[in-house]
Amino acid sequence: MNCQEARKLVHLFVDGALDPRANVDVLAHVNMCSACNDRFADAKRFEDFLKEKLKPSAVPESVKSKIEFRLNEMCTPFPLRLAGSLRRKPAVAMLGVAALLALSFASLRTYERMGTCPFVVDATKFTKQIESGDVSTAPENPQGQMKKTVEQAGPIPKLPGMIANGGYVFSMGPSGRDTYACSFRMDNCAEDAHCLVLYFVDFPGLKLEDHNCIVKHGKKFCCWEYDDCRVVSWKDETRGLYCLMVCQKKEMEHESLVNFASVAATR
Amino acid sequence: MNRADKQTFEKIAFEYVDRLHGTALKLTRNSAEADDLVQETYARAFQHFGQFEQGTNFKAWIFRILVNTYINGYRRKERAPVLVDFTEMEPVFHEASQEVSFLNQPMDSLYERLDEEVKQALEKLPEEYRVVLLLASVEGFSYEEIAKMVGIPIGTVMSRLFRARALMRRNLTDYAKEHGLEEKSQ
After folding, report:
1. Residue A110 lies in a domain
2. Are residue A137 and residue A237 in the same domain, yes or no?
3. Is the ipTM of this complex over 0.90?
4. Which of B14, B103, B133 faces A38 most closely, judged by CB atoms?
5. What Cα–Cα distance (Å) separates residue B42 from each residue in A37, A46, A71, B142?
């Protein structure tokens, strides 16, 4: 081993990272070469210097206490931990309660604003199920709340050029409102066709905001498009019902749908 | 984790609290952040204590958690590391053979006067260099252990360590020259 080779290994030697054979070779060279001996001694001395100067001092007791406290907390069940934290920080607890109240209020407002959306979504979903024959028709003598909804809806309306196929019952929207639906086909269509479906949702307290409204005979009809369907919705205040009429986009435009909806609404 | 686990954990882990805190302090350069970093390290280590294999190197295990926690959470944007790619080791070893000797510096004087200077020299190091220097020179971890802790190849550990030492030498040698210490030694 010459000086050049030895000096390339100085850091590995100082770090004790040389394999035993290389270590022996380096030592053999360093013992014979005073220049390399100085170089290696210098590297070792500098390393010792850094180690001494950078050695850690004793950690403050306050840091140890904080760690112990944190570990104790981790051994405490969550509800007790939360209660303890809130007891220690009443301002945080009060802020939390205020935030929860604000969030609840905001959710209610949002629901009121967006109240129709879940029903539009459900109505299009059920319309597709009816078209694919995945749902069976309503029982002839519905019971309980559903019987009330069917009675509220009254007889199936007669729509010009349409033939009623039959009735269905569902639960719609996030709160599972009782819903009575009837499907219609055009009088020149096959018996298994479903051109549009009319829904009566029992939701007397529902508040609505206008959405793409078309006014027909003084009544507002909101127009929606969702998942390849067109939907018209309105509120039947006298019966306490929220009504939706749904058809596939390819079947008809909103204006035609509103014409049928208007007939159903003014029966 | 229950109280018994906590006692076992504390018995093993508190042996390294000074060293962990010292490293955290030199990494974060801020005592409050160092306190938080060490707390977080202990919390994570305790949480995963079940995964620690008894009989293996606990110090390396908990230091790895410290380094990971620091890299993932405590590294400040303004202290973002200087990216350096030293894939070629040969030039590094060549430079190693050209190093300026530190022997001519009056070490005893430096010991007395360089505490603050060493601290400043360390702070001037790019973050990657500082991490490997602390783990190797102060904590005595092997290249392999450091490579696992930091998540870099062993060759990169070696090159960063060499650069870190070279920069420390340069900074401290400048200091010695500035204060006329070099002349006294000659």
Report:
1. no
2. yes
3. no
4. B103
5. 44, 32, 8, 23
